[in-house]
Design brief:
235 residues, Cytochrome p450, two-stranded antiparallel sheet, 8 strands, globular, binds protoporphyrin IX containing FE, Cyt_P450_E_grp-I, metal-binding, monooxygenase activity, oxidoreductase activity, acting on paired donors, with incorporation or reduction of molecular oxygen
Length: 235
Amino acid sequence: MRRNQVREKELNITHDLLSQLLLATDEDGKFLTEMEIVDMILGILIASHDTTSTVITFVVYYLADHPHVYTQVLKEQMGIASSKRQEELLNWEDMQKMTYSQNVINEVLRLQPPSQGAFKQAITNFTYAGFTIPKGWKAFWSVHTTHKDPEYFPDPEKFDPSRFEGRRPAPFTFVPFGGGPRMCPGSEFARLEVVVFIHRLTTKFKWSRLIPNEKIIHEPSPIPANGLPIRLLPH
Ligand code: HEM
């Protein structure tokens, strides 16, 4: 029904994902099949939901373990909350002021990247670290190992949001969203979701982790093995 409504122009509003996929055609004017549309929607759900929830989980994880970082986030978020009327929504300008919280998100993305990397096909022969990769071969670029390079991130295992303070990492050393033409198109939206979550949570609660040495497993995104139980303490 939706397909007919959209294609027969019975619907005026077609800015949603399903309508766009129903309207999309290839170069010969052929519509996508239903299975292709299902495939794309599932792909986007996994690419957008699981990744963002991983970041949110590890924001909670690291802030619980680093009270001095939590205190700085709280100070920043309370400053923004106090400049707003009750129930007034956050706006783009507020987001721009959350620089410390953005550094926290960057450090979480560096240490616990939700996406582990991807395969890319070499379009030309090239040599990297003494290995020759022939044209046409597929190579897996690893987010995790790139983010642990001590040349660019001294003491790489340490959770330290200040390493992002006032500077951008060198090109292609910090790649949680990939890089180049196929870089994640949802990166700014994801950052927005996480920073709104940080604002809502920190301005109302402090928390502690209930399992201090909870193991982190990879499925393939990292996730605390027991679901990260916490105790919430309202301010
Ligand atoms: C923290 C959250 C996210 C992370 C860490 C993340 C990470 C990534 C990475 C590493 C890639 C592969 C880039 C490449 O191959 O070079 C990717 C691709 C993609 N992401 Fe995200 N992503 C996130 C959130 C989102 C959101 C919220 C959406 C949509 C609303 C989204 C949609 C996509 C799509 C459609 C692609 C495929 C792009 C293409 O192949 O051209 N992602 N993402």
